[in-house]
Request: fold
Amino acid sequence: MTLKILLSVIFGVLLGLFILPLEILNYTDLLIDIGLMLLLFFVGIEIGINRSVFSKIQAMGFKILLIPFGVISGSILGSMIAGLLLSMPFNEAGAVGAGLGWYTLSSILMSNYSNELSALGFLANVVREILAFIIIPTVAKKLGYFEAIAPAGATAMDTGLPVISKATDSETAIVAFITGAICTFSVPILVPLILNL
Amino acid sequence: MALRLGMYLGIIILGAIIGAKGRLSEKLTKRLGSIQTACLLLLLTIMGIKIGMDKEVISSFLTIGYKAVIISIFTIGMSILFVMILKPYVLGRKK
Reply:
């Protein structure tokens, strides 16, 4: 699966870069939305078939919130450590990590601060999303299902969810959606907050 | 943002209701996996196309790409580590 995912993304990038006309861009967002809706619908069907997942989710209760907490704090700390290696100010590096994979919003939130950081915030979060797609199946297999939610960050509620659902089970898919939603709502709060530290 | 969340949640719930009613033929349920894979790979290809067409992403990747890669590896790595540490508390410690 990892290889298929990797090849699909590379194939797409090459198509976009060298072959397809620019007019296609008018349709890509619509196509992504349609594909996403279809995939989320399938995720729903699987959850519906495995109804027993709800009791498992209930048993975990509010402790589920520890997963988004871990994803968010790990992302910010991780990017701050990377910032040390790259000799970046810790607030700038931390803000990039706080983008949690939501690249459009993180770059907008950083654009008032500096154009360079905004470009880095965009690119680092694009890379995060692509890397997430590629490693989620392996993380799920080798480390565990909940760990497989972490790479996706905010995208665990949309584009990352089908990948996670495919690599794990319905219970993890529900936890992933909750995690993605909380991450998504945290991005516009955390990025400016960390930037101003 | 809230609208998107509502839309995603709505479509998942719709799927769950249909799945729970059990009215889907067994043939379709068996095929669900491969249909999902096909859709997923198609979606990823289209996302790739979008990135490949974004001249800014491509040109900035050549200059600050290494920074972006290092930062994303660390963010992913640390978030996996934190989830790993917290997971036993979510699941409840096994005896």
